[in-house]
């Protein structure tokens, strides 16, 4: 009975399972997953508490907003996400973008700033869900590797420099200009708070030491790899606890004027309604667009990279929907825009998470913190949070890609550098846009000047290769040419010049074979050119022959009537067939 | 002695001859060319007089400016041009662009309007020369066929409608908006001058009759083809002479208030210095950019099309220099920006021009006209010039391309239509820009979703074709894939998804052969993806193999260290070699 009912609704059920992946993995949950998920969830939660407060600081928001943006979104992603280990919440790049947007429109950490963050999370989430339902995940393909690398490198610098004022314990209204902020900070250097500087620098050193050295040290002292790794990851927690304790013990907030987090409200996230006040829509638009794209690219790249390590698959379009749902959840529970966190996903993965149940456990840790521990944050120094951020972005710079780009392709390197300097000196959004436009321009530039070569037969094979690189057989009355690019408007002239040039230069020429194995598209401009050239060649007594035309292109040529005008007998399956027919093989 | 001197300077001499082509053809001039050049020059000159005055009207300039823009530029192009028959001067599209620009910045036909035209010709010429010296002729390749067709069709409509007011004999200040001008004209319809309307319509009918019917009629009456053709082309001259005579005889300018050209100054072009007043530079910039590009594209396309009919060659970069020189010559002799005229070049060609000496003869006709005939133009009705323009643009619409685009590619058709409506309803410059951006977007969109197919061996050959289209041989443990696009940032994800997908779907799979015959570029993003995918496949127990990697790409892969990391033994010359080595051929 139930079976029959299920059968009748199977298409709907399958569809529902596609859009709500928890319906796939939760019914198949195995008991042996539980310990790993629990340990990973604890590790993730403990790590997320200071990180999310620190990123709220970076986003020019009160610390609790970071905790709110972690709690419910973690659970919502567990329901809709296709990655088993991705951990969602406030992250460096997204917080930087949110913070830059807020700095332009409201007083940092004010109620208006929070309203802007809620609105941003709502709009970004809604756009991501729509893009996901339209299966538009592919648009991020246009963000090339060099652009992302240039952006990430520049963002690391921007983020680190943005924390200088918190480390120095000085305060001034932030602006959208990195340079102006830096100048401001330098001018206020004499007013720096020594306690803040010392505590911040020591905290950075402790976190880095825990992360880079402590694990190996403990293993050498006989601890198991698992325990050693867990301890090594707790640097953030340790400095938070130590910093808070010391500040409380010596009342550094009063004796040394050390800035602390102060009052953080007790209790679960409030239910918030983002005010759909679109008066700032124009000013917010570029930042929102970047939050949609960068948030998604970061999230899906991290998800894919961890999935492949376990031979699992991630659905790029469903990831858009899941991230969008998490963003909307954030906007309704007092949170700012979210994305996937690399460092927290890595901890989750390494601690043995088998499913997204670990995220649910982590959410529990955050909930307990909000219910019982927030009064302790009163003495948590801001410099400690700044140190957490700086230590986190020390991993961001990706110099290997810069080096690789320089070696492999100067054009790719230039795109990277243009994006990097654009983000640093013009602005986060403008820099990224400049990068995307440059990478498209480079691609068009390169494809508009294709490699063209005369080819000949490699002895005893049916393979035809460039006469410049291989010892090949050719004939005086036939020239076979290969053009290494699609025939489209930007390459039409090259096609024309090459074919006519070959005919003009060789008076004995009877046939030109155009090897189309590298031609992936023929647009109308190129088709028109091809017909013109064919007529011009015929006038010179030279016959044009096509070979290795791909199926889909042949179909379009047929439909357009080109094949019947040109003649099917002048189109060969392969260059070898053509050369045989023309008496040159 | 002279020989030795020449030898010593041969490289400079060769260079000079390249930049000043008259040094090539004039020393080699043959006596038998002279009669053809002379007749063609006369035909060209007679045709150019009314046309150039009419186009001055279209450009919102006094009629003599058109004559000035023809005289010296014809001679300058004869010196620097590489086409033997191209005829330079004011033409429809360039005059439309100039006129639109002038309408926004000055009173039509005023001295300020002339100053703007001189400045435009100077800047456009200078930019063209610089582009030519930098060998940047290729930039025009980015104007696709559909964009040009959409632009030309829309321009024909804009030009024809712009002459409605002149045909009606009414006058109002022109604006940049086609719609506003039309509404204005309709509102003023009751004030239309009947003499103007009748004379204009009759003139259009006469020109079209001469052009389309008279030639054949005369040949049937026994005239030689050459004479018949010459008479058929004289429609423009006939209506000018008849219109002027009738107006003078009946003093229609007074009895019927018919608007005439009026006073045209006697004498050769003045030497003018374009005032480098850059206060309007911002407003002029888009129009100037279009004049540079459209003027050149039109000119070089016409030059190429006539050259190929005689198996001559045109140097695209030198053409930029020659056109630029003609533009600068125009700016110093009272003229507006110029381009190659299709109709006048066709007359030149058909009348037997062998060299650019015909242009020099035509310039003589213009000079004699300016010296002796301008008083006669006093009674030349403006409606006759308007009729000349309308009759000329009747040839412009190119519906065949619209039809062809619809049949061949909806994307190309859409680009054409977007450009057409953009030019008509948004503006000449904005429309063209929208068209160019659309065609680039379409190209990127299409190339970002490449065709990927599994290929197999066509029986008894070494050719590998799609399993979907051909009966081919495949093996269970090897899958050969061909991706029909360059591997770059926009296709990197497709590459990853396809390769991983094939491996996940076939548990028995041991090898994946990636046929790179259609891969014309591998950028850094794709290279990184390729290495990631290779690692992921290895983890699944599948070995990735590359085949038919093109020489230039192999070189870059080698330089970047990819080949040594990946292994040269996994890169095969052809798919057949790879399949043989893997025991599947």
Annotation keywords:
elongated; two-stranded antiparallel ribbon; 9 strands; about 5% strand; seven-stranded mixed sheet; alpha/beta; about 575 residues; homodimer; 27 helices; Transcription Regulator spoIIAA
Report on this model:
2 copies of one chain form a homodimer. In chain A, the strands form 2 sheets. In chain A, strands 3, 4, 5, 6, 7, 8 and 9 form a 7-stranded mixed beta sheet that branches. A two-stranded antiparallel ribbon of chain A has the order 1-2. Chain A is 64% helix and 6% strand. Chain A has 27 helices and 9 strands. The termini of chain A are far apart. Chain A has 3 domains: 1-30, no CATH class; 31-412, no CATH class; 452-581, STAS domain (Transcription Regulator spoIIAA, 2-Layer Sandwich), CATH 3.30.750.24. The longest helix of chain A is centred in the middle third of the chain and has 29 residues, at 281-309. At the A-B interface, α8, α20, α22, α23 and α24 of A face α8, α20, α22, α23 and α24 of B.
Biggest sheet statistics of chain A = 7 strands, mixed
Number of helices of chain A: 27
General shape of chain A: elongated
Which structural category do the helix and sheet elements of chain A fall into? Answer: alpha/beta
Number of strands of chain A: 9
Oligomer: homodimer
């Amino acid at each position: 009975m139930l079976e029959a009912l299920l059968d009748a609704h199977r298409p709907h059920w399958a569809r529902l399972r596609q859009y709500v992946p928890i319906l796939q993995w939760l019914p198949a949950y195995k008991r042996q997953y539980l310990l790993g998920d629990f340990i990973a969830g604890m590790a993730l939660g403990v790590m997320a508490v200071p990180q999310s407060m620190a990123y709220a600081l970076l986003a020019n928001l009160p610390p609790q907003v970071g905790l709110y943006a972690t709690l419910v979104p973690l659970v919502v992603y567990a329901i809709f996400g296709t990655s088993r280990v991705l951990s969602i919440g406030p992250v460096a790049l997204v917080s930087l973008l949110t913070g830059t947007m807020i700095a332009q429109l409201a007083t940092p950490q004010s109620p208006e700033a929070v309203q802007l963050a809620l609105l941003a999370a709502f709009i970004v989430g809604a756009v991501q869900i729509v893009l996901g339902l339209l299966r538009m995940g592919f648009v991020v393909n246009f963000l090339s590797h060099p652009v992302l690398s240039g952006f990430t490198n520049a963002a690391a610098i921007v983020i680190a420099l943005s924390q200088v004022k918190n480390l120095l314990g000085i305060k001034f209204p932030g602006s959208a200009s990195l340079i102006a902020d830096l100048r401001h900070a330098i001018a206020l250097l004499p007013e720096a708070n020594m306690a803040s500087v010392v505590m911040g620098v020591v905290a950075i050193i402790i976190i880095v030491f825990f992360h880079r050295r402590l694990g190996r040290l403990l293993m050498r002292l006989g601890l198991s790899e698992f325990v050693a790794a867990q301890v090594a990851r707790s640097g953030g927690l340790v400095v938070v606890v130590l910093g808070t304790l010391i500040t409380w013990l010596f009342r550094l907030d009063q004796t040394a004027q050390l800035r602390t987090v102060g009052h953080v409200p007790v209790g679960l996230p409030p239910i918030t309604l983002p005010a759909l006040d679109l008066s700032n829509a124009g000013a917010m638009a570029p930042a929102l667009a970047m939050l949609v794209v960068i948030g998604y690219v970061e999230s899906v790249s991290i998800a894919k990279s961890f999935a492949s390590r376990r031979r699992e698959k991630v659905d790029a379009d469903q990831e858009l929907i899941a991230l969008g749902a998490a963003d909307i959840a954030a906007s309704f529970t007092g949170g700012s825009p979210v994305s996937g966190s690399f460092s927290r996903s890595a901890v989750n993965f390494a601690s043995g998470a088998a499913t997204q149940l670990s995220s649910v456990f982590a959410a529990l840790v955050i909930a307990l913190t909000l219910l019982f521990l927030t009064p302790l944050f009163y003495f948590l120094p801001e410099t400690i949070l700044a140190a957490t951020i700086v230590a986190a972005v020390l991993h961001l710079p990706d110099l290997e890609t810069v080096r690789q780009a320089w070696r492999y392709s100067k054009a790719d390197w230039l795109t990277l550098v243009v994006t990097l300097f654009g983000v640093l000196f013009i602005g986060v959004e403008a820099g990224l846009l400049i990068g995307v436009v440059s990478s498209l321009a480079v691609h068009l530039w390169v494809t508009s000047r294709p490699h063209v070569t005369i080819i000949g037969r490699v002895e005893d094979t049916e393979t035809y290769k460039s006469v410049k690189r291989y010892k090949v057989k050719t004939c005086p009355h036939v020239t076979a040419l290969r053009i290494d690019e699609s025939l489209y408007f930007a390459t039409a002239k090259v096609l024309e010049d090459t074919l006519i040039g070959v005919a003009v230069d060789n008076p004995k020429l009877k046939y030109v074979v155009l090897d189309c194995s590298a031609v992936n598209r023929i647009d109308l401009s190129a088709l028109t050119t091809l017909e013109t050239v064919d007529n011009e060649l015929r006038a010179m007594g030279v016959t044009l022959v096509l070979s290795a035309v791909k199926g889909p292109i042949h179909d379009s040529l047929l439909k357009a009537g080109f094949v019947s005008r040109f003649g099917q007998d002048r189109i060969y399956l392969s260059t070898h067939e053509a050369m045989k027919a023309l008496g040159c093989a």
